[in-house]
Specification:
Layout: E1 5-10, E2 19-24, E3 33-41, H1 44-51, E4 70-77, E5 95-98, H2 107-110, E6 142-145, E7 151-153, H3 160-180, E8 188-192, H4 196-206, E9 212-217, H5 220-228, E10 233-236, H6 242-252, E11 258-263, H7 270-277, E12 278-286, H8 299-304, E13 308-311, H9 317-329, E14 340-344, H10 349-357, E15 363-366
Parallel strand pairs: 8-9, 8-11, 9-10, 11-12, 12-13, 14-15
Antiparallel strand pairs: 1-2, 3-4, 3-6, 3-15, 4-5, 5-7
Bound molecules: zinc ion (2 copies).
The site of one zinc ion (ZN) has 5 residues, from loops.
């Protein structure tokens, strides 16, 4: 073990500045890993979690170490942890990414085989950091990979910060595209939201060469990235109100609407709008609206247009693998670094979360060892 203790930024009170604390580093139990974090990129869910958006809808227990999109180097392995989830050898010093741990003994894990939906998951967003092994989240110098948690060695071709992005934005969209089903050359795709998840929806949908990809979002620099990542058209929510956006989608699709829509904005009213702009028999995959709160919709749209509406939450370790392989293969020749924001040390996390919430940074990067 390289150190006896490590620092972590914890949420003790929702919305308050994060507190830097020091916890003893755990010895890895059989099957577990201890990882030194090299980069944690902030996900919108971290901002929501900091604000307490999951209180009452998920079993959250403060204090929390948030941060679930990151990558690091192995510093200690428990017995039997020498292979990753696809059989690649893992040794001290190797770069890895990993998933939360599901229980393996519940309906979601065993019958549905949707481990991200396991109600007994152990992860930083939900589980108290006060108890050992403490380092459940990734806004910390170290993180603990539980014995049953999927883990993957990072391909040598993928820079650490991009591997980090693959582990939530990337894998979430891999899962969402699989939920959506086949996307073909005749399909018209609409992506609501041009944050990192929306941009990955654009990039991954583009790899299937649909007839059109219309990205709806803001601000303009993100719409420009959306076009570089494969959007054929963009609609700015700063310039078009909801009725005008619907009219514009219909104009751009010759009155047809969207065959496949991804809701990646989490915006109030977005789902009602998505049901309006969907084509008959369209598929609508909901990803963004993860926090508490109701939205008004016209349910008859689902029925009268024969829509398929699906929720897509997170992704299992297979989605992590596919996301990293997609970013390495990079069929669109995309500069993935365009979603990365400024680099902050652990002490700068409150500022970084605030910058993301205020949309001043697309995806800030926390580098726990950084000076400052
Ligand atoms: Zn996330
Ligand atoms: Zn389970």
């Amino acid at each position: 073990m390289v150190a006896e203790t490590g620092r972590a930024a914890i949420v003790r009170e929702y919305g308050a500045p994060l507190e830097i604390v020091e916890y003893p580093l755990p010895e890895p139990e059989p099957g577990a890993l201890v990882v030194a974090i090299e980069a944690t990129t902030i996900c919108g869910s971290d901002v929501h979690g900091w604000q307490g958006a999951y209180e009452g809808i998920l079993p959250v227990e403060l204090p929390l170490i948030l941060g679930h999109e990151g990558a690091g180097r192995v510093v200690a392995l428990g017995a039997g942890a020498e292979l990753d989830s696809v059989g690649t050898p893992v040794a001290v010093g190797d770069r890895v990414v990993w998933a939360s741990e599901s229980c393996g003994h519940c309906w979601a894990c065993t019958v549905a085989r949707q481990t991200p939906l396991c109600p007994n998951r152990r992860l930083g967003m939900l589980t108290s950091a006060a108890r050992p092994p403490h380092f459940l989240g990734m806004f910390a110098e170290y993180s603990y990979v539980f014995p049953r948690a999927g883990r993957l060695r990072v391909p040598d071709e993928l820079p650490t910060e991009l591997a980090s992005v693959a582990t939530c934005a990337g894998r979430t969209v891999v899962n969402a595209l699989e939920r959506a089903g086949r996307i073909d050359a005749q399909d018209r795709v609409v992506v609501q939201g041009t944050g990192p998840v929306g941009l990955f929806c654009v990039a991954m949908a583009a790899a299937h060469s649909p007839r059109q990809i219309i990205a709806i979002g803001a601000p303009d620099d993100r719409l420009e990235i959306a076009r570089r990542w494969g959007a054929t058209e963009t609609i700015s929510i700063d310039e078009y109100d909801a009725p005008a956006r619907l009219e514009e989608v219909m104009r751009l699709t010759d009155g047809h609407g969207a065959d496949v829509t991804f809701e990646a904005s989490g915006g109030r009213g977005a789902i009602g709008e998505g049901l309006e702009l969907a084509a008959r028999t369209g598929r609508y995959v909901l990803i963004g609206a993860t926090g508490a709160g109701s939205q008004e919709i016209e349910p008859h749209r689902i029925i009268n247009k024969g829509l398929t509406v699906l929720g897509s939450f997170s992704g299992d370790i297979d989605s992590f693998h596919k996301a990293m392989r997609f970013m390495v293969a990079n069929p669109g020749g995309i500069d993935w670094g365009e979603v990365l924001g400024r680099r902050y040390p652990l002490e700068g996390l409150t500022e970084a979360l605030t910058a993301m919430r205020e949309m001043r940074d697309i995806k800030p990067v926390i580098v726990p060892g950084a000076a400052g």
